[in-house]
Amino acid sequence: VAFRKSNTIISYLFADWFMQKTGTEEFEEMEEQELADHLETFYVEVRDRSGQPYGLQSMKALKYGINRHLQNPPHNRDIDTVKGVAFQSANQTFDGIVKRLILEDKDQTKHKNYITDEDWTRLGNTPSLSTETPGTLQSKVIFDIIIHFGKPSKEGWKPMTKDTFKVSVDSKGCKYVQVSYDYGKKFWPGSENKNTVMYEQRGEKKCPVASFEKYLDLLDPLCDSFWPYGLDHANYGRGKEWKGENVWYSRFPIGESHLTGTMKRLSQEAGLSKSYTNQCFRTSVASRIMYCSIE
Question: Which run of H or of E encompasses 178?
Answer without folding.
Answer: strand 175-179
